[in-house]
Amino acid sequence: MNATTLILILLAVFVIVFAAVGIRIVQQSQTIIVERLGKYHRTLTSGINIIIPIIDQPRKIIWRYVREDFDGRQIVHFKTKDRIDLRETVYDFPRQNVITKDNVGTEINALLYFQIMDPIKAMYEIENLPDAIEKLTQTTLRNVIGEMDLDETLSSRDTINSKLRIILDEATNKWGVKVNRVELQDINPPRDIRDAMEKQMRAERDRRAKILEAEGSKKSMILEAEGFKESQINKAEGEKQAEILRAEGDAMARVKRAEGEAEAILKVTEAIAKNGDPINYLVAMKYLETFKEMVSGEDNKTVYMPYEASGILSSIGGIKDLLKG
Question: How many beta carbons lie within 10 A of that of residue 264, not counting itself?
Fold first, then answer.
C-alpha cells in the first residue's frame, strides 16, 4: 500500500467521521445547546446543522419520563439526552400527603403543564429541571393547602389551581419555563372523614327534601285556600245576582198583579157604577176572602165567627143588591 492510497483512506475515514459526528439533524420543536471547548457557543434550530467534531459538543439535559409496569403502576425514571423538547409537557406527580388548616391529612396528586421557552436558561440556570419542578410543585401545594380548611379544599379546586399556577410560573420564570396549567386530580381525605362527610351529605339531602316537601304542602294549602275563597266569592256573587233577579222578578210580578187588579177594579167600577156604590162590593169581597183564610186548614176544627155576624150578612146583601141592579 503506497502513501497515496493511505492518505485517501484516512481522508475517507475523516469524512465519514465528520459526517457522522459533525452533521446534526434537529427535528421540529426541538433544539440542541452546543458548547465549544466547554463554553456556550450556539443553539441549533430545526433542520440540518453542522458542528465541528471534538471542538463542539452538545450539552446534555436530564429529562423525566413516566411508564407503567405490568401491574399498571407508574414508574418515574430520569434519562439524559442532548435534545431539548420545546413542546408543552405534562408531569403527572405521584400522590403526596398534605395537611389542611384544620389538621386533616389528605392525599393529593396533581398534573402540571409547562413549556420550555428559553432553552439556555433551562440548561444553565438549574441543574435538574424536572426534579426541581417536581419538588417546587410539591412544596407549593403543601403551602397552599395548609392555608385552607378541608371543606374549602374540596370545594375550591379552581382557586387552588390558579394559586399554584401563578406561584409556579413566577418561580420557574428564572429557569426559562412557562407554567400553563395546574390541575388537581384527586383529593382523598381519610376514610373516617369521608364516612362522616357522606353522612353529613345524606342528612343535608334529607333536610332539603323535607324542606321542599313542606314548601310544596304549604303552596298546595295556599292554592287550595285561594281556590275555596274564589269559589265562595263566585258562589256569593251568584246568589247575589240570583236574589237581585228574583227581587226584580217579584217586583215586576207585583207591578203586573197591581196593574191587573187595578184594571179589574176599574172594570168592576164601570160595571156597577150605575147600580150602586162599588166600594161596598170591594169591601165585601175582601171581607169574604179574609174569612175564608181564617177557617181554612186540613185539621182545623175550630170555626171562627165574626163578633158582629150581621156584618157578613150586610156585605152579602150589598153584593146581592148590586148584582140585582
Answer: 10
